[in-house]
Amino acid sequence: MKHPFCHAMQSTIVPAILLISLLSAPLVSASWLYAYQGDIKVIEVQLGDYRFIPQEIQLIDDQAVILRLVNTDSITPHNFTMKAANSAADINVDVPGGVSIDVQLEPLPAGHYTFLCANKFMFMKSHREKGMEGTLVVVTE
């Protein structure tokens, strides 16, 4: 038979540790998403497991950035596609498995831009249909 005190400690400590780790994970993991190369902000976007991390990117309307596209899948090729009325927002880049590619993104007007993976294997759902889609939000400063 378990001691009542041990059972009470397990039932409160384990959930508390789990809660703390879940709440602090975004704070720890978000720090690697942004860096600077000279004066240009570099935003790392991970492509893998049929998702983008981060799934939403926020920019200021007069800000040029470098998107560092990192395919975290070792074999599966992915793609970063973004189309908009403004030709500066048209991007279509293939990122092979395990590869990182930098893409310069010129300043964009305020708005919402959808980005996605356009890859599709024969007889299977497209990567976008599997959830590989995100939003670039450009706001006015």
What can you tell me about this protein's structure?
The chain has 1 helix and 10 strands. The strands form 2 sheets. Strands 1, 2, 3, 5 and 8 form a 5-stranded mixed sheet that branches. A 5-stranded mixed sheet has the order 4-10-9-6-7, with no helix packed on it. About 20% of the residues have low confidence.
Please sum up the structure shown:
The chain is α+β, with helices and mostly antiparallel strands. Helices cover 18% and strands 40% of the residues.
Average pLDDT taken over every residue:
79
SSE order, one letter for each helix or strand: HEEEEEEEEEE
Number of domains: 1
Structural class: alpha+beta
Q: How many helical elements?
A: 1
The beta-strand count equals 10
Proportion of residues in extended strands: 35-45%
End-to-end CA span: 63 Å
Report the radius of gyration as a whole number of Å: 20 Å
Describe the secondary-structure layout.
Elements: H1 4-29, E1 34-37, E2 40-48, E3 51-53, E4 56-60, E5 65-71, E6 78-82, E7 91-95, E8 100-105, E9 111-116, E10 133-139
Parallel strand pairs: 2-5, 4-10
Antiparallel strand pairs: 1-2, 2-3, 5-8, 6-7, 6-9, 9-10
Which features would summarize this protein structure in a list?
alpha+beta; globular; five-stranded mixed beta sheet; 1 helix; Immunoglobulin-like; 141 residues; 10 strands
